[in-house]
Design goal:
It is a single chain. By secondary structure, the chain is α/β, with parallel strands linked by helices. It has two domains: about 5-55 and about 220-250, no CATH class; about 60-200, no CATH class. The protein has helices spanning about 10-55, 60-65, 175-180, 220-255, 285-290, and strands spanning about 55-60, 75-80, 85-95, 95-110, 115-120, 140-150, 160, 165-170, 195-200. Strand 1, helix 2 and strand 2 (about 75-80) form a beta-alpha-beta unit.
C-alpha cells in the first residue's frame, strides 16, 4: 500500500478528478450530442429524399389528417395572398451578399390563414438595405412548396419597423401572427413550434427559393466516435502515468539498497599529498536529475 501513497497527493488527486470528469463528459454529453446530431441529420435527409419522390398533397389534408412528422413534405395550396402582409426576415444571405427572406400571409380556400415564405431577395446594390419589394399577386392562386418547421424566436431580437417594412430575425408563425395582427395557423409538423409553407421556384409571388440542404450526413458520426475514443484514452493515459511512476520509484529504491562493491584482496590506496574528503553519496536530487537527463 505504501507504493500507492503518492496517489493521495493533491496534484495526483486533482489529475484523477479531471480525467474522470472528462471521461464522464465524453460518454454522457459530448459523444451523445454528436451522435444525436448525426441521427437527426440522417432523418432529415431521408425525409427530403422521400419528399422529392412523392407527389404533392393538398395542404388542407394536414389539418384534417395529421400524421406525425410532415416537414419537407410537398404540398399544394389554393387561395389568395393577404394584401399588405409583407414581413422581411433580416440577416439572410444570397450568393454571399446581404439578403432578406420575404414572408406573407396566405388565405386558403378552407379559411385557414398560413404563413408563406416567398423566397430570398438581395439587399439594395449589395448593401443591407432592403430593395423595393414587389407586392404579391392578387386574386386566386395555386402554390406548390414544402412544409417547414418554424425556426423559433431569437432571444433579445424583437420585431421592428425599418426602411418602411416590418422586419423580424427569424421565421416563426406565432411571432408573424403578432406582427401582422392576423390569426395565422401553424402547419402541423409533428413539432411544438408548428410550421409554414416555403414555396418552390416559379410559383406566383416567388423570389429566389431557399435551396434544399445537401443530403450529406456531415462529420457528426466521426466526431461522436472521436469523443468516445477520448473518453477511453484518458483513463488509460492516467493508468500509464501511474505505472511509469511506480516503475521509477522501484528503480530508485533498488539503487539506494545496493551493497557497496568489495574485493577479495586488499589493495593499498595511494596516498595523496593533500588529504581530501570522501566523495559524497548521490542525493535524491542528483538521482532525479539523472532520470530527467540533466547530467
Amino acid at each position: 500500500m505504501r507504493k500507492l501513497t503518492f496517489l493521495l497527493r493533491p496534484s495526483w488527486v486533482i489529475l484523477a478528478v479531471v480525467v474522470v470528469a472528462f471521461a464522464y463528459m465524453c460518454f454522457t454529453v459530448l459523444a451523445p450530442w454528436q451522435l444525436g446530431k448525426n441521427v437527426a441529420t440522417e432523418h432529415r435527409n431521408e425525409l427530403i429524399a422521400d419528399s422529392v419522390r412523392a407527389d404533392p398533397v393538398d395542404i388542407t389534408s394536414l389539418f384534417t389528417q395529421p400524421d406525425g412528422h410532415t416537414e419537407w413534405r410537398r404540398v399544394t395550396a389554393e387561395g389568395s395572398y393577404v394584401p399588405d402582409s409583407t414581413v422581411l426576415v433580416r440577416l439572410r444571405h444570397l450568393d454571399g451578399a446581404p439578403a432578406y427572406a420575404v414572408l406573407a400571409a396566405f388565405k386558403l380556400t378552407d379559411g385557414h390563414l398560413v404563413l408563406v415564405d416567398r423566397g430570398m431577395i438581395a439587399g439594395l446594390n449589395g448593401t443591407s438595405a432592403p430593395p423595393p419589394i414587389p407586392a404579391a399577386p392578387t386574386g386566386q392562386q395555386r402554390l406548390e412548396g414544402r412544409v417547414r418547421t418554424s425556426e423559433g424566436v431569437t432571444p433579445g431580437k424583437d420585431p421592428l419597423t425599418q426602411d418602411g417594412y416590418r422586419q423580424v430575425y427569424s421565421i416563426d408563425t406565432t411571432q408573424a401572427a403578432t406582427v401582422l395582427a392576423q390569426p395565422i395557423t401553424a402547419l402541423p409538423t409533428g413539432e411544438d413550434r408548428g410550421g409554414y409553407l416555403q414555396i418552390s421556384e416559379n410559383q406566383p409571388g416567388a423570389f429566389t427559393p431557399t435551396p434544399l440542404p445537401q443530403l450529406d450526413a456531415g462529420p457528426y458520426l466521426s466526431y461522436g466516435l472521436q469523443w468516445l475514443a477520448f473518453g477511453i484514452m484518458a483513463p488509460l493515459g492516467l493508468g500509464y502515468f501511474v505505472y511509469a511512476e511506480l516503475r521509477e520509484r522501484r528503480k530508485d529504491r533498488a539503487s539506494r539498497g545496493e551493497p557497496a562493491t568489495t574485493t577479495t584482496e586488499s589493495t593499498p590506496t595511494p596516498k595523496s599529498d593533500s588529504p581530501t574528503d570522501p566523495a559524497p553519496a548521490p542525493t535524491t536530487e542528483s538521482r532525479l536529475a539523472d532520470r530527467y537527463g540533466r547530467r
